[in-house]
Design goal:
Elements lengths: L9 E5 L13 E6 L5 E5 L34 E7 L1
Antiparallel strand pairs: 1-2, 1-4, 2-3
């Protein structure tokens, strides 16, 4: 599933196939979106903004928008959980 497929309030975790193994996972909540499918998310426990662990290309030079480090592109792989606010 992609980040763009989530609705506002959906719980998710990052797709694990590209991440190092861990003993626990952090659950995130999609908190904002754009027409292109990207958006923002917060950590469910700490309520802090999260950053995608997957690298993504910066906006083109001359773009009218500057990319924020917290911006999550719509094509970022995620795993949706059975929960929403």
């Amino acid at each position: 599933m992609r980040f763009a497929d989530l609705k506002l309030g959906d719980h998710f975790i990052w797709a694990k196939e590209n991440l190092p193994s861990e003993d626990s996972v952090t659950v995130y909540v999609k908190s904002a979106w754009s027409e292109e499918g990207g958006g923002f998310a917060i950590d469910l426990f700490t309520h802090t903004d999260c950053m995608s662990p997957f690298p993504h290309p910066p906006y083109r030079a001359g773009s009218d928008r500057e990319e924020l480090k917290e911006w999550i592109p719509g094509d970022t792989p995620v795993i949706k959980l059975n929960g929403a606010f």
